[in-house]
Amino acid sequence: MKEKLTWAAVIFASMVLGGGAVIGADSLRDDTPAATTQPQVIERTVNSAGGVAMTAQQDVSDLYAKVKPSVVEINAANTRSTSGSLGSGIVLDKEGYILTNNHVIKGFDQIDVAMSDGTAVSATVAGVDEGNDLAVLKINVPADKLVPAQLGDSDKVRAGSLVIAVGNPFGIEGSVTQGIVSGVGRTLGGGAGRPLRALIQSDAAINPGNSGGALFDSNGNVIGVTTAIENPSGDRVFVVIGYAVPINTAKRFIPDMKAGKKIEHPRLGVSLSPVTPALAKSNNIGVDQGLLVTTIDPSSAASKAGIRGGAPGSRSGIGDVITQIDNKPVKTFEDLADYIDNKKVGDKVTIKYFRDGKESGVDIVLDAWQQSNNPQG
């Protein structure tokens, strides 16, 4: 399922992004504007500690009016061809920096930003974070035309929280949809590149053109950058499962993107599978939980450190089972991936693993993800 995604940007060229269906240029407008909703009421009040309780009322239209000026439309094109892309963006500050998805602008040499008041200007790419599908653009407009979004704390997001999404689905400018957070900590495969991790799942409707737009909490704080939708059928329709890159992930790398620095993400270079008691017993692993190394990139740091891969039943035998990293237990893929994501390329980690029923340990210097890297971790 995870490879069957549609990036929520409208791409009109002979291309497919994220396994979704090709969207023709005539699809920029649709007779059924599913990306809008009637104003609804959120029950809330602010207590003395600044928290939210479900008593007073706030109309979604009031919230939308507050945040809409902070969301822009992005049009990207190639000056030597007819290909182009349509997405959304988030105003970061009065200096004219705009946050969006990398896939909205990647490969295009002409980028225009249209603001909520109708102002349209050219933009340049300040920097990108391909590993998290993020980019920062720069526009030059008077500061009084810019309404920066308030960036929230995505670490505090919980399943069931009320959210709204604002963007430009199918080119329908400034559309708002409402929903709840359906889950957090989601991981989506990124094709040949680094998987997108720690994503926020929401049922607020998003469609092609929403990419790079904002997912807001009920206080008007940005908690995520809308990025992709599940697309099991290959059709360009929303199936009530959308994903957003957490705003805390973006905040971590925004300064480097503004500065135009190259952003690298660390990895071990292995593909992993969780160990079950049955698997452990049948293969005499010596431990009944951990992560089995099934394949390994021969050029990776893990390979250079001597980590061995192998799926059950393979001629090469069973691979190593990772149980700890820096003395922290590893039970799930997220345990390992989240820990490594918070490291830097060149950092050293200590891995403990079981091989042939015996525990061993090794120090590994993390190397960098490349778009051609296939292993997961």
Quick summary:
The chain has six helices and 25 strands.
List the helices and strands and how they pair.
Layout: E1 5-7, E2 10-12, E3 41-46, E4 52-59, H1 60-67, E5 71-77, E6 84-91, E7 97-100, H2 102-105, E8 110-114, E9 120-129, E10 134-138, E11 150-151, E12 162-167, E13 175-190, E14 193-202, E15 214-217, E16 221-230, E17 242-246, H3 247-258, E18 266-267, E19 270-274, H4 277-282, E20 291-296, H5 301-304, E21 321-325, E22 328-329, H6 333-341, E23 348-355, E24 358-365, E25 367-368
Parallel strand pairs: 11-16
Antiparallel strand pairs: 1-16, 2-6, 3-4, 5-6, 5-8, 6-7, 7-10, 8-9, 9-10, 12-13, 12-15, 13-14, 14-17, 15-16, 16-17, 18-25, 19-20, 20-21, 21-22, 21-23, 23-24
Keywords:
about 375 residues, mainly beta, Thrombin, subunit H, Pdz3 Domain, 2 domains, 6-stranded antiparallel β-barrel, elongated
CATH top level assignment of the largest domain: Mainly Beta
Main sheet properties: 6 strands, antiparallel, barrel
Radius of gyration: 22 Å
Tally the structural domains: 2
Based on secondary structure, the structural category is mainly beta
Describe the protein in words.
- The chain is mainly beta.
- It has 2 domains: 1-260, Thrombin, subunit H (Beta Barrel), CATH 2.40.10.120; 266-368, PDZ domain (Pdz3 Domain, Roll).
- Helices cover 11% and strands 40% of the residues.
- It contains 6 helices and 25 strands.
- The strands form 5 sheets. It has a 6-stranded antiparallel β-barrel with strand order 12-13-14-17-16-15.
- A hairpin with a 5-residue loop joins β8 (110-114) and β9 (120-129).
- The longest helix is centred in the last third of the chain and has 12 residues, at 247-258.
- The chain is elongated, with a radius of gyration of 22 Å.
